[in-house]
Amino acid sequence: MLLASGEPDRAAPRSGGETGRSRVMIYSHDTFGLGHLRRSRAIANALVGERPGFSAIIVSGSPVIGSFEFGSGVDYVRVPGVTKLPDGDYRSLNLNLSIEEATGLREALIRQTAETFDPDVLIVDKEPTGFRGEIVPTLDLMRRRGARIVLGVRDVMDDPALLVPEWERKGAADVLARCYDEVWVYGLPEIYRPLAAFDLPEHLVRDTAYTGYLRRELPAEPILTRYPGLTRRPFILVTTGGGGDGDDVIEWVLSAYEADPSIPLPAVVVFGPFINRDRRRGFMARIARHPKLDAISFDTKLEVLMSRAEAVVAMGGYNTFCEILSLDKRSLIVPRTKPRREQLIRAEEASRLGLVSMLVAEDGVRAPEAMARALHALPTRPRPSDVVIPGLLDGLDVIRSRVSAILDPAEPRGSLPEAAE
Hints:
It is a single chain. This protein has 2 domains: about 15-215 and about 395-405, Glycogen Phosphorylase B (Rossmann fold, 3-Layer(aba) Sandwich); about 230-385, Rossmann fold (3-Layer(aba) Sandwich). Helix content is about 35%, strand content about 15%. The protein has helices spanning about 15-20, 35-45, 100-115, 135-145, 160-170, 170-180, 200-205, 245-260, 275-290, 300-310, 320-325, 340-355, 370-375, 395-405; strands spanning about 20-30, 55-60, 75-80, 80-85, 90, 120-125, 150-155, 180-185, 210, 235-240, 265-270, 295, 310-315, 330-335, 355-360. α3 packs parallel to α4 (about 135-145). The radius of gyration is 22 Å and the shape is globular. Residues about 1-5 and about 410-420 have low confidence and may be disordered.
């Protein structure tokens, strides 16, 4: 329930300083792709080391979470995975369970983790109710225990015409008002306001912070990874993130090189772990026949390969966009438009500001000549640093500051980027 002031009815918040330890739990449902996991990992790695005894745990359903490196003080709990079917429904990824049984198991594991780990701060990534409402019992538990509950959302969620009915169906806005203390938007209002269509309660309007984007640092060079020979000279990196929905982008790039041998820079394609195997096999056969193309399957340290690239072609998901900004790379964004318009909206706004260039299919037709022209022009496009936007990459610093203020409530909050009127 809500108090008369609009604040959630909850136990008094705790101080991490009083308990002698500081704990943050991040819930990342990860039913598809790598976006939620990579964002959660970046935040957790940034938080540890801020004070003695700091621990962060990520609860995720990603089947590849064990492939990533985490900082000292960070660990993860993997709940059973689920996968989305072509008709929009879900099924258990590996277990022979109904989706209801799988969700019930995930819900119990999430709640048990929170009960035992007993975090001071719970950060929920993107979905206020989690997958099929699985996080709600944990929210109620954490509220009773006095943990600070935060919804962290990327800069763009979806077209409001699609997002509002989806949240109404899930009861997400009601849960947000009842259970959450703060909202952190991992972007800037100059680019987009992802929750502008919702009538948020007063306490969430007051405690919504636009943090800026999450800066990515270069990880240590991988010891065992062998990059293609094309990476020894200027090249274009083609990445589709997890790869589960990037076939069209890869097809368009390959067709451009096949149609126009004069494209000046070669391209290295990173398929991602979720690409269809038959499609990858077909792509590899074409790549092997072209002297300006090569590919690798998956790289958990994509930042290293991106740092070496002259330019980037990508779908423009949130994490790839952060890496492009952080590494100051010229980029061509080829956004997905279905089932969500998130990438398209981000690409349009970033292109408007001059941070990226963008290419979309004309009337649904991906003409090789259009991609070839864009690849010819890409090496001379402006870099993101040519555009000055205050606070653009301050996200992790703001998050660290906010968590410190939560753990030490006697300390002043300092200045937070707030939603402008």
